[in-house]
Design goal:
With about 250 residues, this protein is of the alpha/beta class. It is built from nine helices and seven strands; from the N terminus they run ααααβαβααββαβαββ. Helix 1 crosses helix 6 and helix 4 packs across helix 5 (about 85-95). The structure holds S-adenosyl-L-homocysteine. S-adenosyl-L-homocysteine binds near residues 136, 154 and 158.
Length: about 250
């Protein structure tokens, strides 16, 4: 007999459109997928706890949804979608016709499928949404032809040596009209109670950038790939250290 939670897993899994030939062999050979999944589960709560006082997560989602609305996009990619919180907000609050999420963590995608209730969606709703298993550091033709892409708290999980391939995958090959990127502003960490000085907000973060570092990266990418970029802060704006989250909106 199949228990309730494993039945849910089966249902969720059934509704994930993924290419096993490509993903489970290729990805797991190339990446430490299990490491990522274990780290995600263990540390998401820790990062939320650090940031909780100002419900930064919600403010981030609101800001990204507003940027996507502003771009006039009809189709949106959520790159590194995790458990699909942004996808849920886009589906609920915009007239975007198609939202596709991709993540390297299969476990996160299963959580996303449950959050979005993919199994009980009407066929019409179901046509608006798709979850894909894949990595943002390898060219993927499934990401082409979209109006906008969002990367919410994802780049800091990439190894710095993979940032260049990531840039090509997103800005050269997928190449949507608008790309919204959020990442921590490390300068703000001194204001988080409970965060040991000098440590990052999440154990899997490979880096956390100052405002100057993020601006410099954003300008360089925009210059190389033919985009304009505007950087702003999300969350309370401290006179000395700025806002906890920084957001870059790239447009062609
Ligand atoms: N955007 C989500 C999740 C952020 S956590 C949110 O805001 O809630 C970072 C996510 O990036 C994780 O789900 C992780 O699995 C994913 N990720 C890390 N490296 C990746 C890669 N190379 N390709 C695709 N996703 C990746």
């Amino acid at each position: 007999m199949v228990g309730r939670s494993s039945r849910r897993e089966l249902i969720a899994t059934r509704y994930l459109r993924h290419d096993r030939a490509l993903t489970n062999q290729a990805l797991e050979r190339l990446l430490d997928v299990d490491d990522i999944e274990d780290i995600e589960g263990a540390n998401d709560n820790a990062e939320e706890a650090v940031e909780r006082t100002i419900s930064l997560h919600d403010q981030r989602i609101d800001a990204v949804v507003a940027a996507i609305k502003n771009s006039g996009a009809r189709s949106v990619l959520d790159l590194g979608c995790g458990s699909a919180k942004l996808m849920q907000a886009i589906l609920a609050n915009t007239s975007v016709e198609k939202v596709v999420g991709i993540d390297v963590s299969y476990r996160s995608l299963e959580a996303g499928a449950r959050r979005l209730h993919l199994d009980t969606m009407t066929p019409r709703q179901r046509d608006r949404v798709e979850l894909l298993h894949g990595s943002l550091t390898y060219r993927d033709r499934r990401l082409e032809g979209f109006d906008a892409a969002a990367l919410v708290e994802v780049i800091e999980h990439l190894d710095p040596s993979r940032l260049e391939s990531f840039e090509r995958v997103v800005f050269e090959h997928a190449s949507p009209r608008a790309v919204v990127v959020t990442t921590p502003n490390v300068e703000y960490n001194v204001l988080f109670e409970g965060l040991t000085p000098g440590t990052m907000r999440h154990a899997d973060h490979r880096f956390e950038w100052t405002r100057a570092e993020f601006q410099q990266w954003a300008n360089a990418v925009a210059g190389r790939r033919g985009y304009a970029v505007v950087v702003s802060g999300i969350g309370p704006d401290d006179a000395d250290v700025g806002s906890p989250t920084q957001m870059a909106v790239f447009t062609k």
